[in-house]
Amino acid sequence: MPEPLPGEHYYRATSVADTYPPLSGATECAVCIIGAGFAGLGTAMSLMERGRCDGDVIVLEAEAVGFGASGRNGGFVFGGFSLGERSLVDAVGLDSARKLYRLTLDAVDLIRRRVERYGIECEAREEGVYRPTGSATSASSIASSASWRTV
Ligand SMILES: Cc1cc2nc3c(=O)[nH]c(=O)nc-3n(C[C@H](O)[C@H](O)[C@H](O)COP(=O)(O)OP(=O)(O)OC[C@H]3O[C@@H](n4cnc5c(N)ncnc54)[C@H](O)[C@@H]3O)c2cc1C
Fold first, then answer.
1. Mean pLDDT of the chain
2. What is the DSSP letter of 70?
3. Global pTM?
């Protein structure tokens, strides 16, 4: 059994506590999303942007908004997958790897657009990222990842 997560976390410590009423009784909606982390809230936002309105979509959260990994993460936003580009190509082939990689860059653009559009106060900065290398292998993997940004 995993240890329960501590109640205090980065998002909670740096934001105004937001509370929402618990769901009571039977309710009908078009879409019910379980979990108010990035995945759940991003999905709700995408539905809203596609014209779904309040009441159409319900987000259920067992604890509080951002209680899971989303409220505790480092806030770094960049494209690619943690397995690295070489392993991605090996797993799915070059064409699919390029398409998947492109999707991650589109996701970064989407996040930036939303930060601007909704005036999200997250101290967003676009200043690149340092990736120190400990070996020739990791240096070559980073060089190859840089070339993927033009796909
Ligand atoms: C320490 C750390 C640092 C990270 N740093 C980065 C980073 O810098 N950049 C990056 O891109 N990614 C980072 N990540 C990864 C990223 O945070 C996660 O991939 C992302 O937050 C996952 O979002 P999620 O919505 O899927 O899950 P979560 O944020 O975990 O949300 C799931 C939510 O569902 C709720 N829930 C679960 N079960 C139920 C249920 N039965 N009923 C109702 N609610 C339920 C939980 O309470 C929780 O709030 C980091 C992760 C960690 C842990």
1. 86
2. G
3. 0.84
